[in-house]
């Protein structure tokens, strides 16, 4: 995995957004693996900016999101809603081509991705505990899409989006670590001091205690870090 250092989140958003916009221009039927959270927001803004300016056509793009909450009482916090707001409603994507893992049939997601030809580019954030998607520490590296029990750390990190900690779902469905690593290109975004320990662990040993470290020796993966997230690497 290559680590690419950038000054701040805005710079990362521009560079990663340009990579994705260029990919869709070159291959209009690209298969994108997408992420939620604050990390990819600048990237989505850049994609939308480029799409508007250059009339980039998203109508044949196919997307597979990393994860989704199970039984999310607050409809406004579902990851589908997040994607509608930050990307899907802002480009001419065909919503029928946008996929989220289904808690009723998690195993089918890997088959659907394979049927679509596999993911060309997978975007990732990283949790403060090193999770990617919702693959919490000690998830096997060979895992496929599955249901997870969220850790208290992840629930409290995500509580800022909900009215209270009690409203944060206790379960989610996520692409597994083997699902993620099958993508032909992987871009992980990490910004802020809160991610610095996870980034250091990710680069140290390939160990299940840090799920993101599954990418350590992956030649198709790049981590874009701002100065704060890269604190222990610089
Ligand atoms: C959530 C998501 C992850 C995401 C992580 C980091 O738990 N399931 O996919 O990477 O949060 O979020 P943020 O980018 O807001 O720090």
Topology of helices and strands:
Blueprint: E1 2-6, H1 9-26, E2 31-34, H2 41-54, E3 62-65, E4 67-70, H3 79-86, E5 98-99, H4 106-115, E6 121-124, E7 146-149, H5 152-158, E8 171-174, H6 177-181, E9 186-190, H7 196-204, E10 221-226
Parallel strand pairs: 1-10, 2-3, 2-6, 3-5, 6-9, 9-10
Antiparallel strand pairs: 4-8, 7-8
Helix pairs in contact: 1-2
Bound molecules: 2-amino-2-deoxy-6-O-phosphono-alpha-D-glucopyranose (GLP).
2-amino-2-deoxy-6-O-phosphono-alpha-D-glucopyranose (GLP) is lined by residues 35-39, 66-67, 125-127, 133-134, 154, 158.
Summarize the structure.
This protein has 234 residues and is an alpha/beta fold.
- Percentage of residues in DSSP E strands: 15-25%
- Helix and strand element order: EHEHEEHEHEEHEHEHE
Ligand set: 2-amino-2-deoxy-6-O-phosphono-alpha-D-glucopyranose
Strand order of the largest sheet: 1-10-9-6-2-3-5
Low-pLDDT stretches? none
Would you count the extended β strands for me?
Answer: 10
What form results from the Cα inertia axes?
globular
How much is the radius of gyration in Å?
Answer: 16 Å
Main sheet overview: 7 strands, parallel
Helix % is 25-40%
Q: On the 0-100 scale, what is the average pLDDT?
A: 97
Structural class: alpha/beta
